[in-house]
Each structure stands twice: as C-alpha cells, then as structure tokens.
Amino acid sequence: MLSRSVARTLSSQSRLFSSSATRQTKVAVLGAGGGIGQPLSLLLKSDPLVTSLSLYDIRGAPGVAADVSHIDTASEVNGYAADQLDQALDGVKVVVIPAGVPRKPGMTRDDLFNTNASIVRDLATAVARVAPTAHILVISNPVNSTVPIVASTLDKAGVFDPAHLFGVTTLDVVRAARFLAGISNANPRDTPVTVIGGHSGATIVPLLSQSSYGKAVTGEAYEKIVHRIQFGGDEVVKAKDGAGSATLSMAYAGAKFTNALLRGLNGQKGVITPTFVKSPLFAAQGIDFFSSNVELGVNGVEKIHPIGPISAEEQKLLDACLPELKKNIEKGKAFVA
Ligand code: NAI
C-alpha cells in the first residue's frame, strides 16, 4: 500500500502529467536556454510521455541539457548549439517554440512583432525542411501573429498541415481557473474556464457563463475577473520590473499543453483543451485562426468544437476580440507574403 505522502505526490504530479499508453516521442524545445525554455525543459524531462528531449537555443542549450539530463527519468536529453538546429530537429515529433524576446513594462505583445516574427519564421523554415510532419507548438509572442507566420512559412514550403499547428494559449486557461478559484473559495481543479479567441488583451475571451462557478460571478466582480484574465500577464511584467514576463507559470502551461497533445497522439480519447489553431469558426469573417476547445487525437487536431452558448456580456467581448484578432492575423500573413 502506498504511504499517504507518496500517494499525495503521485496525485499532485498527475495534475500536470497524466499518462496512459506510452509511445516513443521525441520532443524539441527551441529557445531552451531562456526564461521559459529552462523550466519548460525541466518539466518535459519529468513527463513520462516524453522519451527523448532535444534542447536548442542560440545560447546556453548544451548547459541546460547537461543539467536536466541528470534527472532520474527514462528520457534521454541532448543539447544543441546555435549552428546545430538541423541536428536538434532530426526525428522530432513535437516542436515547442518559446524562442524570442519577452515584454518589458509598458509593452504590448504586438510590440514584440519586429524581433520575434523573423525568429519564428526562420525556425519554422528549418522545421519544414528537417521535420516537416512534426507538431508545432508556438509560445513566442505575439501568438496571434506568430502562428499565422508559421502556417504561411510551412505553406510556402508545401508542408503545412493545419492539424499539426497550435498556438499555446494554455496560460490564459490556467490563469482563468486560478483566478476564478480565488474568488469562489474553491479548488482550481473544480473551476476550469474555457477561454476562446486569441492570446493578447481584448482578444482573450473567457466564457465564465459556461462554468457553474463562473456563472455566479456578476457585476463589478465579473468586470474585474475578466480584466484580470485578459491582462494577467501585465501583473507579472510589472512585478518583474523590466526582467521579463511570465516564465514559470508559462513553462507549467506549456508542459501541460504538451502533455495533453502527447496523450492525444498516443490515442487517448476525450483530450479537449482550448488552443489557437486554423479554424473554420469565424473564417467567413476573414478570421481563419481562432482558439476554442479542440479535441486532440492521434493526428493532432481531431475536432474543433463550436464556442457553444455565450452570455450577452461574452458576446460583447467577442465583438471586441474579432477585429483586433483579424488585424493580428493579417499582420503575420503579410510578413511572410
Ligand atoms: P527569454 O529572453 O528569457 O528567452 C528567449 C530565448 O530565446 C533566449 O534564450 C534566446 O537566446 C532564445 N532565442 C532567440 N532567438 C533564437 C533563435 N533564433 N533560435 C533559438 N533560440 C532563440 O524570453 P522568455 O521569457 O523565455 O519568453 C520567450 C517568448 O515567450 C517571448 O516571446 C514571450 O513573449 C513569450 N511568452 C508567451 C506566453 C504565452 O502565453 N504564449 C507567455 C509568456 C511569454
């Protein structure tokens, strides 16, 4: 029989990583030396569904690899220097991209575009060449634009598969559950919130009305929590005072989404989470990338769920989201065109 503390540890681990059937899965992290990349590499080393970890950065990845490689889990770890991108991508099934610059106080995510657009485009070009069937998880901001940049880059190379490309919006989902739990005196496990739209300010649309705890939040408390979910990233940027944006909570969110994808790829049924993908939901309005609940399966995107019933307040949030999201997507596409 398990001791109580071991049982507790296992059950808390299973909140981040659930494992069912296991298969050989090689995962690469591009930007592994950074504020997100390092703790993300640590968490992926702890995920039993990752069998091989390939860590790449223009700075510092071999050191991170040597460090996490001593952790006593089964996966093997290799680190690659700036001129070894192709080797880093050899045989990978999943590529997670947190490469690029983060925000400083007063910056929006869109202010990062000039620097990060070309970083993401160049990395996507290498993935298209070396690992064209890999699943690509984009963390680098502005996600609303970097995902279309990756899509257009892969498309140009003739290897774009919409079922294999994901913008990681999990941090918004994690924050929404945490903040709702805080004002509901509940455990975040019991307060999941579907967050749709994109990943920046007004494009982040939490659907609190679809949750029993969320439905109970009204008036000023509702306005406050919506604002906090949309601008929670600013709290971290401000508190870090020039030293960057969310890294630890983002690494947690990135590892959580990667684990969900790996479970789907391994054949687990019913793995459903919001993520920013090529989507038919608002394509008629010229918005062909959108985050909504997506079922993950053996081929990546298995099924894109409709947004479902929403309240009048949420309709207003969605109305504010769509035009901004459209601009962000077009900016990404124009960069590659
Ligand atoms: P960081 O500056 O600490 O790390 C970025 C890393 O990328 C550095 O190690 C750098 O050497 C590396 N890098 C730069 N160019 C590269 C290239 N061409 N190839 C490989 N690696 C390269 O930044 P941090 O805090 O880790 O943030 C990374 C990105 O993640 C930022 O764009 C940030 O805005 C974004 N982010 C996204 C979130 C989300 O919810 N999707 C949440 C928080 C941050």
Automatic annotation (TrEMBL):
Single biological process term from Gene Ontology: tricarboxylic acid cycle
GO molecular function: L-malate dehydrogenase (NAD+) activity
Domain of life, per lineage: Eukaryota
E.C. number(s) listed in UniProt: 1.1.1.37
Keyword annotations: NAD, Oxidoreductase, Tricarboxylic acid cycle
Residue intervals of the Lactate/malate dehydrogenase C-terminal domain: 169-336
InterPro entries (alphabetical): L-lactate/malate_DH (IPR001557), Lactate/malate_DH_C (IPR022383), Lactate/malate_DH_N (IPR001236), Lactate_DH/Glyco_Ohase_4_C (IPR015955), Malate_DH_AS (IPR001252), Malate_DH_type1 (IPR010097), NAD(P)-bd_dom_sf (IPR036291)
GO cellular component: mitochondrion
Binding residues annotated for substrate, in chain numbering: 103, 109, 141, 175
Reaction(s) catalysed (UniProt annotation): (S)-malate + NAD(+) = oxaloacetate + NADH + H(+)
UniProt cross-references to Pfam families, sorted A to Z: Ldh_1_C, Ldh_1_N
NAD recorded as keyword: yes
Subunit organization: Homodimer.
Protein name: Malate dehydrogenase
Organism name: Piloderma croceum (strain F 1598)
